[in-house]
Design goal:
Layout (H helix, E strand, L loop, with lengths): L1 E7 L4 E5 L4 H10 L6 E5 L5 H13 L2 E6 L2 E5 L7 E2 L2 H4 L6 H7 L4 E5 L12 H9 L3 E5 L2 E5 L8 E3 L5 H12 L4 E5 L5 H12 L3 E3 L5 E5 L7 E5 L4 H13 L3 E5 L7 H10 L2 E4 L3 E5 L8 E3 L11 H9 L4 E5 L10 H6 L3 E5 L2 E5 L9 E2 L3 H13 L2 E6 L2 H6 L3 H6 L4 E6 L3
Helix pairs in contact: 1-2, 1-4, 1-7, 4-6, 5-6, 6-7, 8-10, 8-12, 10-12
This protein binds uridine-diphosphate-2(N-acetylglucosaminyl) butyric acid.
């Protein structure tokens, strides 16, 4: 069994470098399937989700060479299979991007129904709608998704019923090599959507409007090899270190990030009373008092990201007043609050709302990492708390944060990684 022991309390001080964005990389890796050639990717985060994606791509016939831990060449000249139906695929949410990418190249695609973090119901109806509108037939049975097409996908107008990151990504992937023009409305605008579009455009795709509500894609017959593409910095990793700096009353310069992507988080930290200084590609966050309480309502970009909701809760948990979190994206994203209550937090969560009354201190306790971002919140709680906080189920954290113990150690934290025999 793996666990972290966080020795608290600690004031984070120093500099940290942000890795490439997980949620961009998990779309860009399958997007390379659209080109019969080589793609050179830089700033790829070295996290377990990416290692899993590499394994899945290799099972389809991709040849992948790591040039360094964050740089790889993917050669998809000879893809031998469009079936990605394995335990690995089923555990992994972002495996659904294989549907959009492989449908650009093959008539028949099969993948396991995707798994992922337990955040409540995770339907894929909008993904299916996208593929069907473009002319594919989609069936879900026996734990698999089967998508078939009898001819090249055909561009059309698609209106998403709900703003979905995944369905927007899949629509971009599937429409890139479709015949004619696809116009997708009510799309997600997250930075990783723009990064996928930029990556595909660098290979000859014709995608306009990524980052706005409407994306227009003029299908092209083929894409060409890309000499080198660098994935954007991770918005959520940046936000995690920003909140950790503020919660520990620290002073941290967060380097290699995009301050513009951080606006909703910066705004909340300023409300909390933190000092936030923005530079061209770095942000400095410091704090010298207990945080003020505030209200957070999650919403799609440019709103406050649901993936920062558990982390920002730690600031509220030690604030001077009573704050509120309203979760508008996932139906079950407050499970982690039970862990914080074990540490002395005063939180009552019902349905989509959590009321958080600030307490003087948090105290160490054995806690679980319910999902990736909840796990990051447990680390921040452990850094704030008195005593040694044991965090279990850390495989969730390792899915999405590169070198997390080293990065925190460089800021003065003491987080031990322990592997015990079961
Ligand atoms: N939804 C539907 N039908 C669909 C698709 C989504 O009803 O076909 C609903 C979902 O149930 C949810 C909402 O739409 O209520 C938004 O879901 P979305 O599709 O945007 O989420 P996703 O693509 O599955 C990505 C991230 C998540 C992040 C969400 C929201 C990846 C691989 N995952 O998920 O990231 O929480 O967008 O921003 O990009 C994480 O990184 O920790 C993580 C969970």
């Amino acid at each position: 069994m793996e666990k972290f022991i966080v020795h608290g309390p600690c004031k984070l001080k120093g500099e940290v470098n942000i890795s490439g964005a997980k949620n961009a990389a998990v779309a860009i890796l399958p997007a390379t399937l659209l080109v019969k050639g080589k793609c050179h990717l830089e700033n790829v985060p070295n996290i377990s989700d990416i290692r899993a994606y590499v394994e899945i791509l290799e099972s389809l016939g991709s040849k992948i060479e790591y040039l360094s831990k964050n740089e790889m060449i993917i050669d998809n000249t000879d893809i031998s299979s469009a079936i990605a139906s394995s335990e690995l695929t089923s555990k992994f949410r972002a495996s659904y991007y294989l549907l959009g990418a492989l449908l650009g190249r093959f008539d028949k695609v099969q993948i396991s129904l995707p798994g992922g973090c337990n955040l409540g119901a995770r339907p894929i109806d909008q993904h299916i709608k996208v593929f069907e509108k473009l002319g594919a037939k989609v069936e879900v049975r026996s734990g698999n998704v089967y998508a078939t097409r009898t001819q090249t996908l055909k561009g059309t107008a698609i209106f998403l019923d709900i703003v979905s990151v995944g369905a927007t990504m899949n629509a971009i992937l599937a429409a890139t090599l479709a015949e004619g023009t696809t116009i997708i409305e009510n799309v997600a605008k997250e930075p990783h959507i723009v990064d996928l579009a930029n990556f595909l455009n660098s290979m000859g795709a014709k995608i306009k409007g990524a980052g706005t509500d409407t994306i227009k894609i003029t299908g092209v017959k083929e894409l060409h090899q890309v000499s080198s593409y660098s994935i954007i910095p991770d918005q959520i990793e940046t936000g995690t270190f920003m909140v950790a700096a503020a919660a520990t009353c620290g002073d941290v310069l967060i380097k290699n990030c995009i301050p513009k992507h951080m606006e909703p988080i910066t705004a909340k930290l300023l409300e909390a009373g933190a000092n936030v200084e923005e530079f061209a590609d770095s942000i400095r966050v410091s704090m010298d008092k207990k945080p003020n309480a505030f209200t957070v309502k999650t919403s799609p970009y440019p709103g406050f990201p649901t993936d920062m909701q558990p982390q920002i809760c730690i600031l509220l948990a030690i604030s001077t007043g009573t704050g509120m979190i309203v979760e508008n994206i996932w139906e079950s994203r407050f499970q982690y609050t039970d862990e914080l209550v074990k540490m002395g937090a005063d939180i009552s969560a019902h349905g989509t709302t959590a009321i958080v009354k600030g307490v003087d201190k948090l105290y160490s306790a054995p806690v679980r990492s319910h999902d990736l971002r909840a796990g990051a919140a447990m680390i921040i709680a452990g850094l704030v708390a008195d005593g040694n906080t044991e965090i279990y189920d850390i495989h969730h954290i390792l899915r999405g944060y590169e070198d997390i113990t080293t990065k925190f150690a460089n800021l003065g934290a003491n987080i031990e990684y322990i592997q015990e025999d079961d």
